[in-house]
Amino acid sequence: MSLSIKDHEIDIVIGALRSDLTSFMSEWRPIFSRFHLIIVKDPDLKEELKIPEGFNLDVYKKPDIDCVVGTSTSTIFSGYSCRYFGYLVSRKKYIISVDDDCYPAKDNKGILVDAVAQHITNLTTPATPFFFNTLYDPFTEGADFVRGYPFSLRSGVQCALSCGLWLNLAHYDAPTQALKPEERNSRYVDAVLTVPARSLMPISGINIAFNQEVIGPALLPSLRLGGEGKFRWETMEDIWSGMCVKVACDHLGLGVKTGMPYVWRNDRGDAIASLRKEWEGVKLMEEVVPFFQSVRLPREATTTEDCVAEVANVVKEQLGSKDPIFARAAKAMVDWVMLWKSVGSSTSSPGA
């Protein structure tokens, strides 16, 4: 981990969709025990959480969420969206988010991967979104800029978002996973790269880290599919959020990295059972991607909050009449910016 980053500058956010976190926490203990953890219990989860001792953590349950944002607003944090509440209440510079069905991975040499250290390395070294380096991240040990790379661009830009990957269960949609039920990802690729400017990607909240002070408000819950369930295949919210944050990063001249660190992700859910629910999202992507590719924000948008508000306006104008889901997403984005500003530094620990 970068020597300039202190442990107290980092929050690890865990959205708890299952009650027994014993094995999850135990596996992560060698890495997580150094940091403050924010565990947000899915408001729809009825069972009490089982969390082993020995961690510095705050646990937020439905009454805590209601207290911070009000009962009328707390419904947006159900299911996987509970992680966004952790983003909202954290006051740390860096947030690392890992799903509760993920465990530490091992690299090609069998060494345990310190996902936190790698995420922080990604965030604290420059990104290079304006000219692609064919040796991947030139700021990685043992790498550099390739011949022909403009010297005027070699200083790079600030990296705001680090998107980690995972082994075992591949990041497929329900139709693909249903066709390849036995396929697993076993390839550990020792590489990090910057996503080029104006290129979109399906960001997932399974294993990410970001600089909250720079881009925090753009990681937001807004677009929810009808009848959305509790399994990854049935959610599209983080993909929409990822498009928003990438547009904001491009506009503000910030970078996004993808690749290491890896985690090991266990199977969860039934792809075939989820197929009907996700099909709505598969169809929506054919409109969503061209829309985000065409979005250009005004020069007056100088903050992340400005960017989110501007994207929301364009969503309402260009997509709102095509499907009610887009009009609801636009309103949710505006509401989120207001909530982000209102919660701010007034947030206290649960039970305080």
From TrEMBL:
GO molecular function (one): UDP-arabinopyranose mutase activity
Cell wall biogenesis/degradation keyword on record: yes
Family: Belongs to the RGP family.
InterPro entries (alphabetical): RGP_fam
Main location: Golgi
GO cellular component, one term: plasmodesma
Keywords carried by this UniProt record: Cell wall biogenesis/degradation, Golgi apparatus
Origin: domain of life: Eukaryota
GO BP of this protein: cell wall organization; UDP-L-arabinose metabolic process
Pfam families: RGP
Localization annotation: Golgi apparatus
UniProt source species: Gossypium tomentosum (Hawaiian cotton)
Protein name according to UniProt: UDP-arabinopyranose mutase 5
